[in-house]
Write a structure and sequence with these properties.
52 residues, mainly alpha, 2 helices
């Protein structure tokens, strides 16, 4: 669900970058980047259940 939200946010950012004001685009860019980093850190810190 959160990955869908991230991609929808990025799609909204692209549409806003085409037609919207610069300030809104920069703010949404920062928000999209923060969400992407949060999703990455959520998965990067998971322990892998490997048994060799």
């Amino acid at each position: 669900m959160y990955l869908t939200f991230t991609f929808l946010l990025a799609t909204l950012l692209l549409m806003l970058a085409w037609h919207g004001p610069r300030g809104a685009v920069l703010g949404l860019s920062a928000l999209t980047f923060a969400v992407a980093v949060a999703v990455y850190l959520h998965h990067a810190t998971d322990k892998l259940p490997l048994s060799f």
